[in-house]
């Protein structure tokens, strides 16, 4: 039996190797700081694994190629940063309405616009959820280390395939460039989920007819007829652009398959929350500073705890609502001007106070800064 291997990887290499372990065999992308490392590494490794790497002319073409590759049967991924992700938004909506599984590794930098291309940010949280127009849902996963970059990108692919949905792997410049020890388990221990395939005769198959929320997905070459369109469509995939009833059915389906299963996707690290009176909420690189700050607070007998979101969307609203029965003070530390803070505030329904500790891009919170905020909230200032 193979043993686990110990690697010394940065977050970008870990993302690429995790994607390969999950079965990714197609990558289309366009260089952009600070995400280019992922594309460069995939250009080397994908052909070695029998996969295909294509550098496209821009980000719009990149995600369009992913949609086509996915309908061709491949597990597909791209990487980008904020400006490139902005260009992808129309086709994020196309992937959502066509229920196309794919993964976008989004390495955040400080924005808006060109911003600070080489420095960290966390300002794309809302864009990953609301960037395209209309009603749809995405799944968004956030790692805090190279180890999680490896482990959670595998989970991102599995969720994309399971729910037929675009998944955004929302990392950041610091995690992407950080080198750490990564434990790589044997191949036989890595669970790689495959998409649900139809088991009915071709004449009975409907590509958008769900079974327990998920429609089996036939791809090119399987002998099934499929009609894939960005227009409002029925279970057969045929356009129905003048039917409000079909529009309602379609939108409810692509949204509710995620909303109803939020508890299955929920992934939260709790640290010292067993008796916490103050909860620090963080994600990505800030989660590391927040944990150190909580340790400092505990050494000074302040009952603080950490809630680190590894899955940001769908947002765990019921989780925070239940916590607010006991914890009356939350601090949200994030490298933006309050995007996750708004969601926490909405979720506690006024039962607890929610304070924001922002950075605006270019630097990560120091543990001492978060600790000082904990003391301030503790003292009611």
Quick one: biggest sheet? 8 strands, mixed
The fourth-level CATH homologous superfamily of the largest domain is Thiamin diphosphate (ThDP)-binding fold, Pyr/PP domains
Number of strands: 15
The run of helices and strands is: EHEHEHEHHEEHEHEHEHHEEHEEHEHEH
Distance between the termini: 58 Å
Total of helices? 14
Mass-distribution shape = globular
CATH class of the largest domain: Alpha Beta
CATH topology of the largest domain: Rossmann fold
- Overall tally of structural domains: 2
Query: Helical proportion?
Result: 25-40%
What is the average of the pLDDT values?
97
Write down the Rg. 21 Å
Structural class computed from helices and strand pairing: alpha/beta
Q: Give start-end ranges of low-pLDDT stretches.
A: none
Q: What is the architecture of the largest domain at the second tier of CATH?
A: 3-Layer(aba) Sandwich
Name the beta content range.
Answer: 15-25%
Can you walk through the features of this model?
It is a single chain. With 381 residues, the chain is α/β, with parallel strands linked by helices. It folds into 2 domains: 5-189, Thiamin diphosphate (ThDP)-binding fold, Pyr/PP domains (Rossmann fold), CATH 3.40.50; 269-378, 3-Layer(aba) Sandwich (Rossmann fold), CATH 3.40.50.920. The protein is 38% helix and 22% strand. The protein contains 14 helices and 15 strands. The strands form 3 sheets. Strands 2, 3, 4, 5, 6, 7, 8 and 13 form an 8-stranded mixed beta sheet that branches. The radius of gyration is 21 Å and the shape is globular. It starts with a strand and ends with a helix. The model has no long low-confidence stretch (mean pLDDT 97).
